[in-house]
Amino acid sequence: MEWKGIFPAFTTKFTSADELDLPLFGKNLKVQLDAGIDGIILGGSLGEASVLSNTEKEKLTRFTVEQVAGKVPVVMNIAEGATRDAVQLAKDASKWGAKGLMLLPPMRYKSDERETVAYFKAVASSTDLPIMIYNNPVDYKIEVTLEIFDQLQEFANIQAVKESTRDVSNVTRMINRFGDRYKILCGVDTLAMEELVLGAVGWVGGLVCAFPAETVAVYRLVKAGKIEEALKIYRWFLPLLELDLHAKLVQYIKLAEQQAGLGSELVRAPRLALVGEERERILKVINTSIANRPALPEYLSL
């Protein structure tokens, strides 16, 4: 498992009958692989994990593993309220063929440092799968501090962090404290280029679901030292990337996927598809960007 490169946080595709739309998911997956992504994350916030049954998670994971056929690792997100449920999902993910886990702190309870560490250690002890800790105190109200990461160093399978504190300086703090012990992947689309320049080795993306080639191109150009070329694409990309920061990021990004021909805007209740002025406003952002889509340099060989 190499925590490096572009890891899309895949949306979960639904039919109008509110069932998994695996053919549409497979269409998007093929385009992502052709664009050069480096891994796949299933069942995250963007994947509407909170409204998926375990049966659906299994079906989606097994389908993805089969379609990917070993080309890139499939990572299952764990965002459970109970420690025992998180431990069980980690075991299930391994059986289903996942090659890694993305692990959030406990959901729906603001655990303190001791409880957060115990939660992470319980899951890490239950599996051999490599783990990326998701550090997002803005949305989930629990910060995984440097002191917590220090206590997690004893677990060799805790290897990476999805850095979503929205403080770019935290990349430097992590590197100053731990060197390359933890691989840092940016988890906020609007800070991705900045964090890649500061030393992040990957990007867990949202808008990559609709614009995979542009996302991979920015990453590879930055890592090849072609900053000016990357910046031109990134500046075009920013209005789209800002859709990742809203509470309705699922609806916004799914609408972008639909407009890009890679998905649909169907979401699962209690989420509702966009309507009225809000939908028109977001459509304008998306369609204007698509109309001005930049020509990409050759990036796959970088």
TrEMBL record:
Binding site for pyruvate: 204
Gene3D superfamilies recorded: Aldolase class I
UniProt name for this protein: Dihydrodipicolinate synthase family protein
SMART domains: DHDPS
Coiled coil: none
GO terms, molecular function: 4-hydroxy-tetrahydrodipicolinate synthase activity
Residues in the signal sequence: none
Active site (catalytic residues): 134 (proton donor/acceptor), 162 (schiff-base intermediate with substrate)
